[in-house]
Specification:
377 residues, Phosphatase 2c, domain 1, 14 strands
């Protein structure tokens, strides 16, 4: 038998050992430093295709080299070269070449054509991406439908919301409730996390708060307490909701409120020409049952205003890493005489200047302003 024929037979023995899964045979077929590398490659191949079977369809030998057209079959049950398992029967075609010296393989090359498989993966990923985008668009439309379509129209008062999610769907929410005796409930909240999970919890929380708050005689502290008990039963351990709930008596200007771990609202006092915070403490909703929420109250005089917001505004960062912060927010509130939508627009313009043109919004931003009209002179 010629040297070329012996080398061809050696190449065929490699294919047979792969088919059998006989890794020990490679110690005899390859030089030592190449044998272990080949064992690792074949072990990975057999994990991906447990029923692997392959062969060289034809061989060409010249001197120390043997080249062949490689064809093998197998059921794709494990990850292979970055391709996730499909469970499909695959057929591979490629080229193999070995170099033999002293009856041992000292070099080995294998080139497999995976172009069609990669194209299938890209097509599948594109279809999946399109499906997810369509679902997100539907989720966004549903979420926007859950938010109030109109603000309460009250003589002597202006209420104005601003809602800007960071993603297609968000975890911020706000709501208005028309209560008995002409009172109005105002809710602003923020669900931990982002994306679809936060949006689902946002919808659930909003529904719970609406149902509880509509009960006759319910006060802000009672509403948050009952909502917390409901949410604690099904919120995942790693999620929670911050919420500020206030009830306004338009005739007197009395504002009764309670807070479940939410960003403190800022209050602009017209007569005193100062700003302060509506301080009330309480645990976020859904973290722990049996929580009580302290109620506070204030009276808004003509020209006074309240700005409620989520932490997406105060926790925004400049390119240098500086946080926008509550002190800056209170200062801006005192500097801008306009309220309502004018104040919201001014704050967003200031935020844009602070964060810079290249800023990527880190979190949802929701603003809710409540202003009492000044007394006519």
């Amino acid at each position: 038998m010629s040297v070329e024929e012996e080398n061809k037979a050696l190449s065929r023995r490699v294919a047979e050992a792969i088919n059998r899964g006989d890794l020990d045979a490679f110690d005899e077929l390859f030089k030592p430093e190449l044998a272990q590398e080949f064992k690792d490659d074949v072990a990975e191949l057999k994990r991906a295709f447990p029923d692997y079977h392959g062969a060289d369809e034809f061989q060409i030998a010249e001197g120390d080299f043997v080249a062949g057209r490689l064809v093998f079959y197998g059921t794709h049950l494990g990850e292979f070269m970055g391709l996730a398992p499909t469970g499909e029967q695959w057929k591979f075609e490629g080229l193999s070449m070995i170099r033999v010296k002293d009856s041992k393989i000292v070099q080995s090359w294998v080139e497999i054509n995976l172009e069609d498989k990669w194209q299938q993966r890209l097509d599948q990923e594109m279809r999946e991406r399109e499906r997810v985008e369509q679902e997100l668009q539907v989720a966004r439309r549903i979420q926007h439908a859950l938010l109030p379509h109109a603000t309460p129209q009250l003589d002597g008062w202006e209420i104005s919301p601003h809602y800007q999610p960071a993603w297609e769907v968000g975890g911020d929410f706000y709501d208005f409730l028309l209560l008995e005796d002409g009172r109005v409930g105002l809710i602003i909240g923020d669900v931990s996390g982002k994306g679809v999970p936060a949006a689902v919890l946002m919808a659930s929380t909003q529904s719970v708060l609406r149902a509880v708050a509509q009960r006759r005689g319910s006060t802000p502290g009672q509403v948050l307490e009952e909502a917390n008990e409901v949410l604690c039963t099904y919120i995942p351990p790693n999620m929670f909701v911050t919420c500020f709930y206030a009830v306004l008596e338009p005739e007197s200007g009395r504002l009764l409120y309670a807070n479940a771990g939410h960003t403190l609202p800022c209050c602009k006092r017209n007569v005193e020409e100062r700003t302060d915070e509506l301080v009330a403490r309480g645990m976020p909703l859904g973290l722990m049952s049996g929580m009580a929420y302290v109620e506070k109250e204030t009276t808004l005089l003509p020209g006074d205003g309240v700005l409620m917001c989520t932490d997406g505004l105060v926790e925004a960062h400049s390119p240098q890493g500086e946080m926008f912060g509550a002190p800056r927010l209170r200062s801006l509130l005192g500097e801008h005489p306009e309220g309502g939508s004018g104040l919201s627009a001014a704050l967003m313009e200031e935020l844009e200047r602070f964060t810079g043109a290249e800023w990527e919004q880190e979190d949802d931003i929701t603003l809710l302003t409540l202003e009492r009209s000044p007394t006519p002179r």
